[in-house]
Amino acid sequence: MISPSNRALAVELIQEANQSGARLAKACEELHISVRTYERWVAKGNVKVDQRSHAIRPVPKNKLSEEEREEILTVVKQEEYTDLPPTQIVPKLADKGTYIASESTFYRVLREEKMQHHRGRSQKLTRRIPESHLATAPNQVWTWDITWLGGPAKGLYYRLYLFLDLFSRKVVGWEVWETEEAKYAETLVKKAVISEKIQGAPLVLHSDNGSPMKAATFLGLLEKLGIQSSFSRPRVSNDNPYSEAMFRTLKYRPDFPHKGFSSLEEARQWAQHFVHWYNQIHLHSGLNFVTPVQCHTGEHVAILEKRKDVYEAAKVKHPERWARDTRNWTPNEQVALNPMRDEGQTKAWRKP
């Protein structure tokens, strides 16, 4: 059943169309009603056209005058109040014996004048987009960071410098030192480049904003080596997720000495054993369970292909045990650091 308000609207539209030259029958047909229905609605006199938009309403008694409105705008522009919200302006005015309007009225006036936010010298904050890099092979993008290892006494720490390849997750360089200094990072990056035999090849090195990472001498060395530096956003902890995930794996190893290392030599020895395990023994879940070294050298392609054949043969032998397709053993084709969310490719990029 059509409500009276909809009936009134239909009659109004038909009359408007008819007065503009349209045939009454055609106008009724457009609204899926017959001419007789339209005539019955009009004849009964129970159709009232909504005239509320044309009604003349009295001015509210509590409406601000133009002088009061201008006074509000003048007050909020004063240096004393430019950085304050109305919730603080109104009480301050009251302390001086002045009342213009309520806080909500101040807010309404500021909204209408587009002055509610960033008045005075305040600036609108813009959210920075993290630097994004895509690796389709080893030695295209490295990430690095420094983590602290407990020492022989409370408050004493050793620093583990560690460089990680984004595509293969292989640890391409590491050292343990007693302090954080750019000179140690400089030595380590040179050794890693030589060890990987990539002198002169394009490479991106991503890190956070620590002092060794942004030291002028270190950045100068990267420029000399042809390495592009990349940094996390200030005060953002998850822009370097692969290095952070590596350190979590390191500190959750069963043999990690949570009570601290007795000496620098012991810390270096333990780190050496860990890197060997991580690179050559550990089946990395982010690599479809091959080791970082296998992924780094390209051996993983044949390994994953063989696994696929084994699974296909098992399915042929006992098809009743397989409700769906066999496990996906496809190797990674690309790995992204801080992928752009609007590119539609996020699902194809594996997480650390």
From TrEMBL:
Protein name in UniProt: IS3 family transposase
Spans annotated as Disordered: 328-352
Species for this entry: Aquibacillus salsiterrae
SUPFAM superfamilies, A to Z: Homeodomain-like (SSF46689), Ribonuclease H-like (SSF53098)
Integrase catalytic domain location: 134-300
One Gene Ontology molecular-function label: nucleic acid binding
Biological-process GO terms, alphabetical: DNA integration
